[in-house]
Design brief:
Pfam families: DUF5615. InterPro entries: DUF5615. Residues 1-52 form the DUF5615 domain. The chain is α/β, with parallel strands linked by helices and 65 residues long. The chain has one domain (2-64). Helix content is 49%, strand content 17%. The chain has a three-stranded parallel β-sheet with strand order 2-1-3, with helices on both faces. The longest helix is centred in the middle third of the chain and has 10 residues, at 36-45. The protein is globular and about 30 Å long.
Length: 65
């Protein structure tokens, strides 16, 4: 499975998913403090399931649909 983990996700979770064979892009490694809309766009471009602990990102998605 393909995931995009935003920087709010703890690194051990990302590492665990990678050990299990999943493809995980991690915003903390790619571009910390990336704006939420850019994170959503990247998840869409990568056809990745977005992992986040930030409830505000859901509101942004609903507004932009």
């Amino acid at each position: 499975m393909n995931f995009l983990a935003d920087e709010s996700v703890d690194r051990p979770i990302v590492e665990c998913l990678r050990r299990e064979g999943h493809q995980v892009s991690y915003i903390a490694e790619l571009g910390p403090e990336m704006p939420d809309d850019a994170v959503l766009n990247r998840a869409n471009q990568e056809t990745a399931l977005l992992l986040t602990t930030m409830p505000g990102i859901i509101r942004i998605r609903r507004v932009s649909e």
